[in-house]
Amino acid sequence: MRVHIGLFVVVATASCASAPPKHEAAHGAEPPRYSLVFFIHGDGDYTFHDADGDAHKADEAILASARTVAERNPNAEVFLFHETRRRKLLFVVPRKDGHAYYYRNGELVEERSYWRDQGASRFDPEMTIYEELSATRLQPAAKMFFYFGHEIPEFDGDGYDRSYPKRSFTVPDLTAGLKRMAGNSAKFDVVVLGTCYGGTPYTVNAIAPYARYVVASPENLHRSYFDLRPLEGLDGDWDASAFATEFARNAYERLDEEIETAISVVVYDVDRTISYLNTVEEAYAETLSSLDARSRERTAHCDCAEDPAYVHAGIDDGVEVLYRAPRFGRSKGKQGHSGWGCWKTN
Amino acid sequence: MLTRIAMRLVLCATVVFAMTGVAHAQDAILDRLNDTAVDVKATSDPVQKRAILEKRIDGMVDALSTVRSAPMLSEQDAANIDRVKATLQERSDELAGRNGFSPVPDDQLNAFSSFVVQDFEQAKSITIGVVTLLLIIIIIILLV
């Protein structure tokens, strides 16, 4: 018996000593051509119903789609971070509320659970994992970032997480994460915000230092989110502008088939929007400073074209708008959208 | 019998809310709206479709009015209920063609029922006190 135990220990030790971590083994000499990072927020109410009335969890649906994307890209590394609700085993023992998946060359090489950061530095745990595993310190041919969740607050970010009502999340928290992930190298080629009201002058301006193209919605984006199928099988000559347009158009067409509420998907060519963003920056900052938690109930989103303070030459520059009015409701007859979302006070 | 079912539901809801510590009013209403859309699509008769929509939406407006008149509501809960009620009232107006709306045509009632659900799913998260929420659930179960 003693001999058997000794033999097991020797074998186990030898095994630990000789096998490198799976993610290191997966790092070949060739850096991946594509790097995709997905943040999927699931700590909130993400239930939606399909046309048959069946309920789905949007965060779980998008996670499944993103994993399919990861499996169908032999030339990519893909990070998936899924932020989930706080749960307790037998109502007592807390369980980890973050889940990371790392794919290389279409294969899952690392999967781990972690504790989400409860402090001010929101993306620290994810950044630690990213920096440990990433094989793309050399610049890949294409680098994309995707965020899926509710509207990212521009002010009063408390309560974004249902499990942690006092925890705050705002646009600067997102851009701090983008800054760290972009590092000293070039910007992300495409940043996709799968959220409601991501297409505002403030949010796009905040992301501008870290992105060449942004795909977002200046209005509500139904919880079925953006369709990820254009990301499957990335290969060949890749162009950020063409890809962003194709991605947005595909998302729009998919939503148009299923959704009765308004649909707006916009591609922002960031460099070409800068002039307009600089023009309206001050006005938007004044609006935000006049809003706070107490006035939230009296504020509503609107098309920037409805507010003269935002109607300037260049409002259309660098903006490709795909818009369809809602099929019912007060805005049923709305003919178009500027592509920019603003605030109004009721 | 109805009272017994309602009491059991209330008991279950109380236990769940006590465990989660969170009460989101729109979940209860959204479930009801989704059931309504399923029922509307299950019938081919536009008269029945319209009747289902009218009864359920107007019933929820009435239920919210009843809760709104309760004396122990907080100011915040009252404001949230007003907001939800206004949204549902607008849907009711559109269905019937009141307040500047043209009535929803018969051949668009299925789409309209989906619109009501999707529009509500996109609404801001409305957090309401547990007691108020229980009142909403009870009254919706009893009246709608």
Question: Mind sketching the topology for me?
Answer:
The complex is a heterodimer of chains A (346) and B (144).
Chain A: H1 2-18, H2 22-26, E1 34-41, E2 47-49, E3 55-57, H3 58-71, E4 76-83, E5 88-89, E6 93-94, E7 98-104, E8 107-114, H4 124-133, E9 142-148, H5 171-182, E10 188-194, H6 201-207, E11 211-216, H7 240-258, E12 263-269, H8 270-290, E13 299-303, E14 319-324, E15 341-345
Parallel strand pairs in A: 1-4, 1-9, 9-10, 10-11
Antiparallel strand pairs in A: 2-3, 4-7, 5-6, 7-8, 11-12, 12-14, 13-15
Helix pairs in contact in A: 6-8
Chain B: H1 2-20, H2 25-42, H3 46-68, H4 75-96, H5 109-121, H6 130-143
Helix pairs in contact in B: 1-6, 2-3, 2-5, 3-4, 3-6
What is the percentage of strand-forming residues of chain B?
A: under 5%
N→C terminal distance of chain A: 79 Å
**Oligomeric status:** heterodimer
Strand elements of chain A, count = 15
Estimated radius of gyration of chain B: 16 Å
- The CATH topology of chain A is Rossmann fold
User: Tell me about the biggest sheet of chain A?
Assistant: 9 strands, mixed
Computed structural class of chain A: alpha/beta
Q: Using the 3D structure, state the CATH architecture of chain A.
A: 3-Layer(aba) Sandwich
Describe the structure.
The complex is a heterodimer of chains A (346) and B (144). In chain A, 30% of the residues lie in helices and 24% in strands. Chain A is of the alpha/beta class and 346 residues long. Chain A has a single domain, classed as 3-Layer(aba) Sandwich (Rossmann fold), CATH 3.40.50. Chain A is globular and about 55 Å long. Chain B has six helices and no strands. In chain B, helix 2 (25-42) runs antiparallel to helix 5 (109-121) and helix 3 (46-68) runs antiparallel to helix 6 (130-143). Chain B starts with a helix and ends with a helix. The A-B interface holds A 44-45, 47-49, 51-53, 55, 91, 150, 159, 162, 196, 220, 222-223, 259-261, 297, 326-330 and B 19, 22, 24, 26-27, 30, 34-35, 37-38, 41, 79, 83, 90, 94, 104, 108, 111-112, 114-115, 117-119, 121-122, 125, 127.
